[in-house]
From TrEMBL:
It is a multi-pass membrane protein. Its main location: membrane. PANTHER family: AMINO-ACID METABOLITE EFFLUX PUMP-RELATED (PTHR32322:SF9), INNER MEMBRANE TRANSPORTER (PTHR32322). Belongs to the EamA transporter family. GO terms for cellular component: membrane. The chain crosses the membrane at residues 7-27, 33-51, 58-82, 88-108, 115-132, 138-156, 177-196, 216-236, 243-263, 269-285. The lineage of its organism: Bacteria, Bacillati, Actinomycetota, Actinomycetes, Micrococcales. Keywords: Membrane, Transmembrane, Transmembrane helix. The keyword Transmembrane applies. The keyword NADP does not apply. InterPro entries: AA-Vitamin_Transporters, EamA_dom, EmrE-like. Residues 7-130, 142-284 form the EamA domain. This is O-acetylserine/cysteine efflux transporter.
């Protein structure tokens, strides 16, 4: 990756790390599935009227929407609502780094450099150190839902990467995928919220929507969602997954720092040691990536037609 793109990846990861704290801060009194639906409604409108559809087949757009957006955030928001602490959620979600590398190796034949895989393993060890050192009890359901969110994100990463291999998308198409993939998200999330929370709870939440929830929704939708995923999808289109996804290991470090600064949650020794290990893993992975591009064993040579 170029220095410019590396800086962009680091900025996106930082924004995403802070987002976990912002979600927890603004979701009080709002059903989680409704909160997620509002996030994607804000991403969708009015942007869809100004951003053209990306020049990739619809199956990629829908796939990104279903896995990177609908699946990831429905599982994540419910997990946080069930008691998953935002700092620990930021850590758990980084399982997507290993998931993405494994799925990309099988589905896209992208074989990461050995040092990149070692870097990802180091990052995972750092995650485990922090997770073990955190205080508090998390229910098994909240834990499993957060892990499913990470898996769904990883599948979405690979679909986004596949669209880039096949279509050669740039930033405009990266933004387009982010906006147009949101088409398949708000209505199913709202329907699920009405089903599980009930119309009365949904209506009450909308009528009593606080300014904290407004700020949280705006940050999550516009900065973390629209800008963050537009950049991330563009990078996935330009580089192998193993060169991009390790940067997200910065997110939990940013999340822990944000919780310390904004919420007064001072990190303990395990969190500091684990955070340092994650940064070491990122350094190893990116140093390897700067010297050797992962092998791509099979890449379609031409653009597919847009119409399926």
């Amino acid at each position: 990756m170029t220095n410019r793109d590396s800086i962009l990846a680091a900025l996106v990861a930082t924004v995403w790390g802070v987002n976990f704290v912002v979600i927890d801060w603004g979701m009080h009194g709002v059903p989680p599935l409704l909160f997620a639906a509002l996030r994607f409604a804000v991403i969708l409108v009015p942007a869809i009227f100004f951003v053209r559809k990306p020049d990739v087949p619809w199956r990629f757009i829908v796939g990104v929407g279903v896995f990177m957006s609908l699946g990831q955030f429905s599982f994540l928001y419910v997990s946080i609502a069930l008691g998953m602490p935002p700092g620990l959620a930021a850590l758990m979600m980084q399982a997507q780094v290993i998931f993405t590398m494994l799925i990309a190796a099988g589905a896209l034949r992208e074989i990461p450099a050995s040092a990149q895989f070692v870097g990802a393993i180091l990052g995972s060890i750092g995650l485990a150190v922090v997770a073990v050192g955190r205080e508090g009890h998390v229910t098994l359901l909240a834990f499993v839902l957060c892990l499913l969110a990470a898996l769904s994100w990883a599948v979405g990463n690979v679909i986004s990467r596949a669209s880039g291999i096949r279509g050669g998308v740039g930033f405009r198409d990266g933004l387009g995928i982010t906006v147009w993939s949101a088409l398949v998200v708000p209505v199913p999330l709202l329907a699920l919220s009405l089903l599980f929370d009930g119309p009365a709870a949904v209506g009450q939440a909308l009528l009593s929507f606080s300014w904290e929830s407004v700020v949280s929704t705006a940050y999550s939708a516009l900065l973390s969602g629209l800008a963050g995923y537009a950049i991330f999808n563009t990078l996935l289109a330009k580089y192998p997954s193993s060169a991009v996804v390790p940067w997200v290991l910065l997110a939990p470090v940013a999340g822990i720092a944000a919780a310390w600064i904004l919420l007064g949650e001072q990190p303990n020794a395990a969190e500091m040691l684990g955070g340092a290990t994650m940064l070491l893993g990122l350094f190893v992975a990116q140093r390897a990536g700067s010297r050797r591009t992962p092998v791509i064993l099979a890449v379609p040579p031409q653009r597919e037609p847009v119409a399926d």
